Amino acid sequence: MATYVILCRISPEAFTDVKGFKQLAEKVSEKIKSDCPGVVWKHSFVLMGHYDIIDIVESDDPEQVEKAAMIIRAYGHTTTETLVATPWKEFLGML
Questions:
Q1: Fold of 2-94
Q2: What is the pTM of this model?
Q3: Are 8 and 76 in contact (CB under 8 A)?
Q4: From CA 63, how far away is CA 89, in angstroms rounded?
C-alpha cells in the first residue's frame, strides 16, 4: 500500500465553538469511512505552524485518497495538500 500525507488548513469559518469542531471532525471521519473504504487511516496529528492537521493514510487506490481529501475539504471546511510519501529505506533502495 502507498502512504499519503494530507496536510490541512482549517478555515476560520469552519466553526464558532471549539465543541463544534469535535462534531465536525466526527462527521468528516464517518463520511470518509463510508465513502472511501480503500483508505486506511494511520495517524492524525495537530500541528503548530502553516498547517493545522496532518493525516497519514494508506491506500492502493489514489482515487480513494483524492475522494477522502475532497470530503475533508467539503465537510471539514479546509484546504488540503496531498503528498505521496515513500519510506526513506525504500527510496534509497531505488537509487
A1: Alpha-Beta Plaits (3.30.70)
A2: 0.89
A3: yes
A4: 26
